[in-house]
Amino acid sequence: MTQKGLIKKTLAAAxxxxxxxxxxxxxMDALGSHKDDPPMEEKxxxxxxxxxxxxxxxxxxxxxxxxxxxxxxxxSNPKQVHTKAVKxxxxxxxxxxxxxxxxxxxxxxxxxxxxxxxxCGLHNSKDAKNPAAARSRSGYAILLGGCPVIWKSSLQKCxxxxxxxxxxxxxxxxxxxxxxxxxxxxxILWETKSPVLQGANLHATIYEDNQGCYLLxxxxxxxNRTRYLxxxxxWFWEAHEAGEFAIxxxxxxxxxxxxxxxxxxxxxxEVNRKALLGW
Length: 279
What we know:
Shape: globular
Order of helices and strands: HHHHEEEHEHHHEH
Radius of gyration: 20 Å
Distance between the termini: 12 Å
Largest sheet: 5 strands, mixed
CATH class of the largest domain: Alpha Beta
Strand content: 5-15%
């Protein structure tokens, strides 16, 4: 699945049809508001370009979701540093304009969730007095039969106090989409007239790489240090105890949602891209 026409249109709108190709979609450091930076000087419309990039990111290009999510936060007052980041993303798309998403379904009909968080990732990119500097970022990817169907990269709406809480908030919020989707698909399987799928059970698996978050989600043990999470984020325990899904501990290098929360070095970025996009 590719969107070469949209990529060419976006490059033309920014006057970068003949730009030099790039290897990474965004700088390694998170983008801040940079209030003291000069305003953008380019003649193209920042919001229009980011809008086209957003359409691309939500349809076939999981690998630019983090970059586009960052750029979308500054549409009301873009600075030169933000337009520079847009250009870096466009150079990356220039190099990979013929790429997209390779769908290669597995033999097993499984629903999988990879969920990750970047704790306080804006700390070094914003004024420390700005409350937004303490925000963490969530990222998740839902796969059906090994193929990505839903993914997202976004800042968390609340300020978390530690890595465990950031990871747990990301998991709890992702499950609000994952569980209804699982139940809908299971109902479709029960009602289908296909002799192959009728009566089949949909296996739902969640992959978590943070040890503290994994233990809290599976052992269901609240301590004095984690009891403040009880009311808002433990809602999914009942579904877990009922066996609606399994939570599996996975190593960080197998957490395919990692590049949805932060910019990774090129080698690690390409490993994540290969796992979700197939190239």
